[in-house]
Amino acid sequence: MTPDRRTFLRCAATSVAAASPLFHATGALAQASAAPQREFNPQPGAWRTFDVTTRVDIVKPDGLTQLWLPVPSVESDWQRSLTSDFRSNGSARLTEDRGYGARMLHVSFAAGEAAPYVELTSRVQTRNRAADLSQKTAHAEDAASLRFWTQPTELLPTDGIVRETALKATRGARTDVQKARQIYDWVVTNTYREPKVRGCGEGDIKTMLETGNLGGKCADLNAVFVGLCRAAGLPARDVYGLRLAPSAFGYKELGGNPASLKGAQHCRAEVHLAGHGWVAMDPADVAKVMRQETPEWIKTTQHPVVAPVNRGLFGGWEGNWVAWNMAHDVQLPQARGPELGFFMYPTAEVGGQRLDSYAPDDFKYQITAREIKA
User: Which parts of 41-102 are beta strand (E)?
Assistant: First the structure.
């Protein structure tokens, strides 16, 4: 760990004790005050329509070859999952996993097929989210459903060090909003974006907390948020998806290039707050902006580049993103390989061997999006 990083964490620990995410050095404050203020304030509005196309080609088929592609599964006041069409030289069918209802396209190919391929196009509508946490509204939710979203999973245990950390992070909090705020601040303050992590990360929060290695990407950092919320008694869930288009607010790290979305996968989070229902969260993208939006690693949430994002992603997110599913511990139908901790990437098996989804060129997949203008 570098001296700068130790200083950063030491300042962060002090600010957490004060229930505040502010951590900085004098020089950082001076730099922040000189920088122009940015805007990031997504608000619910018009729906946007996208066609999202995934094309997969198996470069070296060998024996039994299978593919599983995520299909939009979420219906909500911020996403409408509409149609999915596909073409392939294999046997393809739309199905879903048993535990979470995550929809997928499963394709199997004859052993002699020389050039297996599939092309899947899903149409979705998305829009911005923002919660007014100053006003309570009636949100009736089935108690059994809420209990489901507090249960531990393989990667999200809720006992041991996760429980201990959640209790420390929420010390003094009385309401659901206060608990969520303090956990959000804890994640922003104590974790950090690590660009060298492969893909979106693994989401093994117990190992992260036990080792003190709190660097990662979205599937790591937002999983920490979700796990701590569950351990504190708040229903919470990861939402796995894909960035589709540039950010309307000019943040290069908060958008995707629709012509090539390979590597644009992104995990967000939701927490259920009494009187407010399911509320959007994304502390991982705060960390991404801090680490990668500018040439220098920003280490204060007061910085004018970071401050609006830190505010906006507590309770909201931008609708330039599609949600695939909210599934954990996914057993792919007819797969020979192990279950997945989460299902966000195209997955393939050749000859019964699982290919590396984090290396898309190994089995050549490409994802694109086209916005349908009214």
Answer: 48-57, 65-70, 79-88, 91-96
- Angstrom distance (rounded) from CA 161 to CA 210: 7
At residue 306, what is the residue type?
A: V
Mean predicted lDDT score pLDDT of the chain: 90
Greatest Cα pair distance, the chain, in angstroms, is 66
**pLDDT at residue 359, as a whole number:** 77
56-103 confidence digits (pLDDT tens): 999 888 889 999 999 999 999 999 999 999 999 999 999 999 899 999
CATH T-level fold of 3-44+127-324: C8orf32 fold (3.10.620)
What CATH number does domain 49-122+346-372 carry, 1.10.1240, 2.60.40, 1.10.10, 2.30.40?
A: 2.60.40
Side-chain-facing half-sphere of 140: CA atoms under 13 Å:
0
Q: CA-to-CA distance for 34 and 366, rounded, in angstroms?
A: 41
| First vs last C-alpha separation in the chain | 51
Q: Where in the chain is the domain with CATH 3.10.620.30?
A: 3-44+127-324
What type of residue sits at position 154? E
Report the side by side order of strands in the sheet with 65-70. 91-96, 103-109, 65-70, 347-350, 353-354
Mean pLDDT of 281-286: 98
Q: What is the pLDDT averaged over residues 351-374?
A: 87
Question: Where is 362: in which H helix or E strand?
Answer: helix 360-363
Range(s) within the chain of domains with CATH label 2.60.40: 49-122+346-372
**pLDDT over 70 at 299, yes or no:** yes
Residue bearing the bigger pLDDT, 298 or 29:
298
CB 279 within 8 A of CB 271: yes
More confident call, 1 vs 226? 226
Q: What b-and-e string marks burial along 44-69, b requiring 16 or more CB atoms within 10 Å of the CB? A: eeeebebbbbbbbebeebeebbbbbb
DSSP 253: G
